[in-house]
Design goal:
By secondary structure, this protein is α/β, with parallel strands linked by helices. It is built from eleven helices and 16 strands. It is globular, with a radius of gyration of 20 Å. The protein starts with a strand and ends with a strand.
Length: 339
């Protein structure tokens, strides 16, 4: 079968490899669509924390079950499915508390123990496979995984008020966090980004205020919008050097700042605001299974995210898709690869 490998920094090659042999508890999926994620971009750029070339891209996937192991009971050949792409060790305290996302020994696609999804076939244990309803497209099925990231970020918030939330960075994850906040009942959503297209998309999805930090005084505008109080929560979905300080400056006293963005370089942080205003700071690492289940349910029940799919390319053009995302040569939210 064909698979797309990152073989060096900013270089992708299509190689022929063997179709995975499934275990008794696994299904084999004929891949239809895969999504290019920010972590794939980190791999492409050579900055990913643990995935290093040569490795198969991808972890967002939708396709058809074409083979099942002898112990599989929940699925049959022909089922349309997606995958929650991480497997915990099952033994640590985090796994025992259903926190596979922070298991230190978890497996993920595109590592030594599990191939990536940019391939014609992909194997996965039954326990992490989810059905896509018949009237839901493969495209939208692929978006269940990144939507789960936004759902998890919103679920991590402990401030009870849902009056105002700011999302700093309106790329794919920022926009999906907007959707999750909207569906969770936040009344006023504020989004920032340096790309006009992303801000237009945020407005279309329900943002009440959009700001470009290169043109607008974000702190002043948000304080004015909230009558000087500040937002209940700020969710950081981008990695600008001043973004944590910006978040703490716009949050109310005893509000919260959540970090979703994988910021891999050290950036300066002024801790004074956190102490003076008793602001809580939390991280949101991918998602828990309950978040993935909720995201799957939202899309299976008709949540339409098709506007977010801005490019679709064949497997042979995976490198082009990564360059589009990397260089922002086109208006882009989510690039899908069709296999």
């Amino acid at each position: 079968m064909k698979a797309a490998f990152v073989v060096d920094e900013c270089k992708v090659e299509i190689k022929n490899i063997e179709i995975p042999q499934i275990k008794d508890n696994e299904v084999l999926i004929k891949v239809k669509t895969v999504g290019i994620c920010g972590s794939d971009l980190h791999l492409f750029q050579g900055t990913h924390a643990f995935r290093k070339p040569p490795v198969i891209l991808g972890h967002e996937v939708a396709g058809d079950v074409v083979e099942i192991g002898k112990d599989v009971t929940k699925f049959k050949v022909g089922d349309r499915v997606t995958v929650e792409p991480h497997l915990g060790c099952g033994e640590c305290e985090h796994c025992k508390n259903d926190l596979v996302n922070i298991c230190l020994n978890k497996k993920a696609p595109g590592t030594a123990d599990w191939i990536g999804t940019f391939a014609e076939y992909f194997n996965a244990p039954e326990s992490v496979v989810y059905k896509i309803e018949g009237d839901v497209s493969y495209d939208l099925g692929t978006l269940i995984e990144p939507l789960a990231v936004g759902v998890h970020a919103i679920d991590r918030i402990s401030v009870p008020e849902k009056d105002t939330i700011a999302i700093l960075g309106s790329g794919t994850i920022g926009l999906l966090t907007l959707v999750a906040a909207r569906e969770a009942g936040y009344k006023n959503i504020i989004c920032t980004d340096t790309q006009a297209f992303n801000l237009d998309m945020a407005k279309k999805q329900g943002a009440k205020l959009v700001l470009n930090p290169l043109e607008d005084d974000v702190e002043t505008e948000i304080k004015a919008f909230t009558n000087g109080k500040g937002v209940d929560v700020a969710i950081v979905c981008a990695g600008a050097p001043n973004i944590i300080d910006q978040a703490s400056a716009i949050v109310k006293r005893r509000g919260e700042v959540g970090i979703v963005a994988m910021i891999t370089e050290q950036i300066p942080v002024d801790t004074y605001q956190f102490v003076f205003n008793e602001i809580n700071l939390f991280g949101a690492m991918t998602y828990e299974t309950k978040d993935f289940l909720k995201a799957a349910d939202m899309i299976n029940k008709g949540l339409d995210l098709s506007d977010f799919i801005t490019q679709k390319l064949p497997l042979e053009k995976a490198e082009e898709g990564l360059n589009i995302l990397n260089d922002k040569t086109e208006n882009v939210v989510k690039v899908l690869v069709e296999i």
